[in-house]
Amino acid sequence: MVGRIELGDASIAQRLNDLEAYNTPFQSTPPATRVVYVFRFSTATEIFHLSLETTNDGQTRCYGGRLDSNDQILNPASLSTIGAAYNTDSDVHPMCNVQGSSLVLKAPVADLPGLILARNLYSVTAFTMAGPAEALQALIDPMRTVDASPAFDASRPSDLEGSRTDLLSVR
Asked: Which residue among 15, 63, 134, 159 is buried most deeply as judged by most CB within 10 Å?
């Protein structure tokens, strides 16, 4: 699976500038320590993401996964799920790079259970979030969506085999 997120400037320097700009106004939550670009897509039964993180010290990390129990943001009073965290799944092995002004996020289709059988993708979108380190996300300090593209649905080519990938661009 390949997702391309088109940006005006995909450099680490720009991502750090964006994080600093996000943190400049007063907010009721602690300053964000990372910015994450998320490429999200769904089958009829599963929701997946491929993500690129840049921390406030300029380190980058590529990760992905299926939205499941390790992605829940819980209300501590009721233990009900109130949000999604888009956390790392260790069995997904994505690769991310910059091509011009685009972020390109890739993962083997075999790492995304159920995707190889799906012919349709739903709610394909990309968005940018800012917030705390993955391990520190909580109701009182969640990741916050900064920007998002409109979602779209897509059909995969009928000749797609497990060794091939789709290319979907989100602007």
From this structure: 15
Distance CA 26, CA 126 (A): 26
Give a yes or no: residue 15 inside a domain: yes
How many domains does the chain contain in total?
A: 1
The residue type found at 26 is F
How do residues 73-101 score in pLDDT, each as one tens digit? Answer: 888 888 888 888 999 999 999 999 999 99
27 located within any domain: yes
Closest CA to 2 of 92, 106, 124: 106
The pTM of the full predicted model, rounded to 2 decimals, is 0.88
**CB neighbour burial string for 137-171, b if at least 16 within 10 angstroms, e if fewer:** beeeebbeebeebeeeeeebeeeeeeeebbebebe
* pLDDT band at residue 171 using 50, 70 and 90 as cut-offs: very low
Does 171 reside within a domain? no
The arithmetic mean of pLDDT across residues 126-153, rounded, is 91
In a domain, 145, yes or no: yes
Rounded Cα gap, residues 79 and 108, in angstroms: 34
